[in-house]
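Students often ask why inverse folding is considered easier than folding. One informal answer: many sequences map to the same fold, so there is more than one right answer. In these notes we will look at a single instance of the problem. The structure comes first.
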């Protein structure tokens, strides 16, 4: 066999080279025996900012003037306040969503020791237990033995309280005395479903309630009339304008001349109780006063919540004429890590390469004239012409107050 025949025989016997595809789609011959690199992901990161279309503005017609309300809607009776009581408890029965720390194990060991069972803390598992804060409001005049609604919230790193049961817990008052106990199943208004690569959660699962899960063991002594024979009506937050307090005193004096007077701080009304009224009739006397109706003041106040974008305006908010311009600077950044793959037999190295998409959009809104607005309806119509989102409007209202255009008090929640 000559040399040409040997070469042809070798070519026929050797396997054909593999064909790969490069990044640009061109075919690349890969020699036999080499390892073909896996296909690299081509999906890129994206980030965008979208502004939803403005909601339809609707107008409603209501009555004009002051609003009448019973006194009991405007004041609270001193001595009839709710009292917060709280304590620590242990929730068990969790499906592996409990605490990972040693505190729950130590608390369980203490409970077992109180029952004469001595178990080392290291022998206990905390996956099905969670330390919780237990709290409730003790109404004024509640008697021992009556049920209470109780709230619980995870104290450490428990993932969920779903399916848990609160073990016996004691609730303490400011004087460190036990006023109630609590125990029972925990009601959680949500759930969590987990997989290996995805999780779905509804609502907040590390806090729950025990409807009627508490029991009062100690009453809180209360009295309507103080030792000097006076009732004290304290204006509620949001209704503590001096005009409201004065009208309450005038309404009571219209029924019982000279019985009521405004206190020195302007936030309360002191009512004298006639000495000939027995203690058993004090409740009837108070009910008669609280049923009186008074005209309440409109409030020149704007309440804003920057976390949620909520804006609430009172009826006496006013606007002076001026000019306003507003705009947004929107910066969108998307990061993508790509892989630089060397060619076959090139001797190069695989190197990650960062890629960044950056987009900056600045709105160019004109300066708008703001006319005078002397009613709440006019204020709403003027502010709607700005076309601002609620979060932008919060900044605009704050700047308008600083500039003297907004005649109102701004309070932040």
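Output (designed amino acids):
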């Amino acid at each position: 066999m000559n040399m040409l025949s040997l070469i042809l025989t070798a070519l026929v016997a050797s396997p054909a080279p593999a064909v790969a595809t490069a990044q640009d789609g061109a075919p690349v011959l890969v020699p036999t025996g080499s390892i073909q690199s896996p296909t690299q992901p081509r999906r890129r990161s994206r980030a965008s900012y979208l502004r939803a279309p403005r909601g339809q503005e609707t107008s409603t017609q209501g009555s004009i003037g002051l609003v009448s309300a019973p006194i009991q809607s405007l004041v609270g009776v001193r001595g009839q306040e709710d009292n917060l009581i709280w304590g620590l408890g242990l929730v068990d029965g969790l499906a592996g969503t409990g605490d990972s720390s040693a505190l729950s194990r130590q608390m369980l060991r203490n409970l077992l020791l109180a029952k004469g069972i001595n178990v080392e803390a290291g022998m206990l598992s905390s996956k099905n237990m969670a330390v919780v804060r237990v709290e409730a409001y003790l109404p004024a005049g509640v008697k021992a033995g009556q049920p209470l609604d109780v709230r619980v919230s995870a104290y450490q790193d428990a993932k969920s309280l779903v399916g848990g049961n609160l073990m016996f817990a004691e609730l303490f008052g400011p004087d460190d005395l036990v006023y109630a106990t609590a125990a029972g199943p925990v009601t959680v208004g949500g759930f969590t479903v987990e997989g290996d690569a995805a999780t779905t959660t509804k609502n907040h699962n590390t806090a729950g309630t025990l409807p009627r899960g508490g029991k009062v063991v100690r009453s809180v002594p209360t009295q309507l009339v103080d030792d000097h024979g006076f009732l004290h009506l304290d204006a509620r937050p949001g209704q503590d304008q001096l005009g409201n307090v004065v009208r309450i005193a005038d309404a009571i004096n219209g029924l019982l001349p000279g019985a009521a007077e405004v206190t020195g701080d302007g936030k309360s009304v002191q009512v004298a109780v006639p000495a000939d009224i027995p203690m058993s009739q004090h409740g009837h006397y108070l009910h008669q006063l609280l049923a009186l109706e008074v005209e309440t003041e409109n409030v020149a106040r704007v309440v804003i919540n920057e976390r949620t974008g909520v804006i609430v305006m009172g009826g006496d908010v006013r606007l002076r004429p001026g000019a306003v311009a507003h705009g947004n600077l929107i910066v969108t950044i998307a990061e993508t890590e790509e892989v630089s793959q060397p060619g076959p037999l090139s001797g190069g190295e695989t190197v990650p390469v960062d890629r960044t998409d950056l987009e900056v959009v600045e709105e160019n809104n004109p300066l708008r004239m703001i006319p005078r607005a002397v009613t709440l309806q006019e204020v709403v119509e003027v502010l709607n012409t700005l076309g601002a989102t609620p979060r932008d409007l919060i900044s605009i209202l704050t700047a308008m107050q600083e500039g003297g255009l907004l005649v109102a008090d701004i309070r932040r929640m």
